[in-house]
Amino acid sequence: MRRKQLRIALFALPALVGSVLMATTPAGADPAGSTARAGSERSHLEDQDPVRLVRIQLAGADMLDKVVAAGFDLEHGLRRVPTGIEGEAVVTAEQIAELEALGVEILDDGQGFAWSDDADGGLPAFRAQAVQPLSHEQTVRIVRADWFTTKGQGFLYVEARTTAGQQTNPIVAMQLENDSGPGTSFGSARTMSRFVDSGQYMFHRNLFKLDARPSQIRVTSSTGGVATGFVSNWLEDGAPPLTANPGYKWDFIDGYKTPQQLYRRAEEIARQYPKIAEIIYLPYQTNGYQRKAQATVGGTGQAAVVASSAAWGHEGGNDITVEFVNRPGANLPLAVEVNGKAIRVLLAKDASGGLASTAAQVANALKTQSGGLIDRAHPYRTNAGTGIVQPTPVPVALTDFLDEKRVGAPEGEVPRGPATIPVLRIGKHRDGKKPGVLIQAQDHAREWVPATTSLEAAERLVHNYDSDKETKKIVDNTDVFLILSNNPDGANYSFYNFASQRRNMTNHCPDADADPARRNSWGVDLNRNYRVGSGHDGYSGGSTNCVSDTYQGPEKLSEPESKNIIWLVEKYSNIKFMMSVHSNGGQLFWQPGAYIADGRITTPRPPLGDEAFYWQSAARILSQVKAHRQTVVTPENVGGSSDVLYSSAGNVREDLYHNYGIYAFGWEVGGSVYNPATGNWQGGSFQPAWVGNPDLVSGHAETMEYANGIMEMFRIAADWGKDNKKPTSSLAPGAGTYAGSVDVRFETSEPATIYYTTDGSRPTLESPRYQATEFREPGQVFHVTETTTFRWFSVDAAGNIEQNYDPTKNDTRNNYREATITVVQQ
Fold this sequence. Notes:
This is Chitobiase/beta-hexosaminidase C-terminal domain-containing protein. Its cofactor is Zn(2+). GO terms for molecular function: metallocarboxypeptidase activity; zinc ion binding. It comes from Micromonospora eburnea. By secondary structure, this protein is α+β, with helices and mostly antiparallel strands. It folds into 5 domains: about 50-115, 2-Layer Sandwich (Alpha-Beta Plaits); about 140-235, Sandwich (Immunoglobulin-like); about 240-285 and about 420-530 and about 555-585 and about 605-670 and about 680-720, Zn peptidases (Aminopeptidase, 3-Layer(aba) Sandwich), CATH 3.40.630.10; about 305-395, no CATH class; about 730-825, Immunoglobulin-like. The protein has 12 helices and 40 strands. The strands form 9 sheets. An 8-stranded mixed sheet has the order 13-12-9-10-11-8-7-14, with no helix packed on it. Strands 15-23-25-24-26-31-27-30 form an 8-stranded mixed sheet, sandwiched between helices. Strands 1, 2, 3, 4 and 5 form a 5-stranded antiparallel sheet that branches. β9 and β10 (about 185-195) form a beta hairpin.
């Protein structure tokens, strides 16, 4: 299956010149930086290599691990195909060669992918399990069989496992057959693709077009196993979106927004609607949209010197000039003259009158004799600086390579200093008694749609509070916290300097990577900077390379942007839900988010009850997305993020779930949209054209449909906060007498965690938890061969305990559930 290369279109921003993702400088800007003054000759060593988006194919998950570990910037829309994994990477020409050296195939530009009858990649969902006989001895299990429609076309996604899946020689083959509806026979055998991730067998899967909805499927393994199951509907029965309510106000966003525009509007909302909104200012200021001024001067290679100002560029660093001077004479020492902000390095001469200053010597002189103007000076990259420095034809101006007067900037100059991030808080009762929902957008700077999506959701809340009863329920029963841009420095850099910027702007690099040509490669990936499953602890997906786009930072929580999130959830302990909104790829996921590659050891998976609650919530959220224009986030793109996407060490979701018990979702908005005219799927992009074909990819359409999903996230939290209904559970089959042995499992009335014992003791919160058979599968099956008494209780996602049982007290009621399975030996 071929997927279309992402097309990055011109963005529309009011009063802002258009840019494209591949651009390395803003429209009309001098590639060396517009702060370079006339007569200032720049070194070609400062030139940035342009980046572009290329479509790649990897042989499998092991290669994906190596590419991610090497710090390559992979677009999120990875797709499993029978021959490996296809995706896109944002790379330079040099990096293309590095990818090829790793064995990655660079594919030619495609115009879309077509669904084939062969296996396609895919990962599972959980909401509606295929029905199978209850047996612990199954060698083949059907995990999912999901039917969905979009734009008049039907699709079937199937996932199945075999107990022989880890066998590699020979590789176990599995085939899928489906009927054409009730009463029809099986047919149309298709080979399913075997998916192995980081050396571990995951499952077999298939995704393909069908003209009619099947009723059942049959999966057969080459080792002899066979299983049948019923087909379930995926996103076919969602409730109407709030936008369908009479008089409902929506569609407030008219284009992409800079951080300044986002923050200003958040503050306006708080002023306009003081009864339901306020601003919280986060305590840790960002590093700022600012840089030290720099220049690379004096020659090439071993003879080049990199100089950096002590002051920020806008605070005087951009006024500094450096000139390397060849004086007449012989036996002259190296010296430095400073006149205001003009630095003249008088190069040394040997006995014959030849130049004699090496780059290392000049760098040391600049650091020690520049009157404090130069803070950092060193030879270029990893060179020792043994080359003889050449004089400069004219003084070279240091520059921070940031546009001082950006053409069309909405507010004139973007503030250069540290930024304070505001949180827009919306709720009628902001006293900590209502369940809090944190929406965090734009951790990654180039992802512009998440910010507009989040702002659209905020606008819908405040504009419809007085007129729409469903919106009033949300605002009255939740406490919403919106961070519209969690990375303002990087986002400004993306808008005005380098559209592909992913990270913040904090430069942690040593001298080898601190020269100006690396300026688009500095910064920390904020979603690799947290404490659980961190790259610092050996988990995959976070880089130690300071110029990698997945650089995790020098230590956990090194960045103010990540510290702010922890401060917020610790101060407002009523926050029980969180959605980190990213783009693009069309995934919705949660824990586990990372694994140690050797053995694929994931961070702890959520208990079965939490996992089921995540799937239930996902179905609600994604049904609302589909209701706008039939965009379907497919089952393969839902689940634990390390299973759906790749291992992302140190992500925010893991920290909030494992340390604070917050249901933390990650959302990659802007997935593929089916085009019925071509039969292909059009991929999204980080900055799609704001206005385009309303049925295909556009920033406006994505903003509206994914805002539907965020609104449903609020409704889920409101329902959770009002939930006082106790769950019920049972053992299936129930208590009774059975001959020989029997297979049993637990069933619950809603997503709930079951704690149980089989040794006659009273169940407590320390008792074993009922677990899944395998990840993203139903609960385990107990093969009971002797008389056994099960005692248990269930706890739902809202904390309600079955039958009001108190597992912390040893009272005389003992109102836990109990069932005895009596086995009569024959």
